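We treat protein structure as text, and this decision shapes the records that our systems exchange. Because each token names a local backbone shape, the row as a whole describes the fold. An entry from our holdings is shown next, in its original layout:
>
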Amino acid sequence: MKNREIRMFKLLNLKTDASTSLVRLGSVEKTIEDAYEALDSLILEAGDRAKRHNSERIEGWLDKADNRKPRTKEALTVVLKQERSIPRRAPAATDWDLRRDDGS
């Protein structure tokens, strides 16, 4: 009987450890989920801030008239220069781009 009681005690401890581990795992999953939600919120906020900033810059370039067109040809030139000065990311090189002209 004593061996049986020891086995039952060990099984009970294993079951308790497993339950505790599941609770901890659930807590970790919730923490990760909360972190992703916070990150999504920060990304949206940064995007909104960037849109607002760009909108304010464009407001300065455009006439306040109801047709919202650039004041003059010079103003349009400034707008185009500003737009071209925005750095753009170069596309990543592919295997095709890295091949030599001789077809290798």
